[in-house]
Amino acid sequence: METLTTVKVVVTNPAAAKPFETDAERSETVGQLKAAVLKAFGLTEGQLPGGNVASYTLYNDKTPLENLNETLGEIAGHREALHFKLAQQIVQGTDGR
What we know:
Structural class: alpha+beta
Order of helices and strands: EEHEEEHE
Strand content: 35-45%
Number of helices: 2
Helix content: 10-25%
Mean pLDDT: 91
Number of domains: 1
Radius of gyration: 15 Å
Low-confidence stretches: none
CATH architecture: Roll
CATH superfamily: Phosphatidylinositol 3-kinase Catalytic Subunit, Chain A, domain 1
């Protein structure tokens, strides 16, 4: 039996025209994937103009992937592909007034 070392990953984002697709190492962490996805979509987390703060979360179905050290292999198990959604959260900040 062949051991799978990679997993096909597709990440969709409602604001993006096309999904992010890659063949990732099963040892890659959620944090590493998230960094690559944000870069590919041209997104950054943190303070926005106007004082709001943007953060992004990857979802596996409706489950948020909150453990950034979890590997894609742990999530995939025996599956050969993973499909995630990237969601944006905006927290209103103050403008100093």
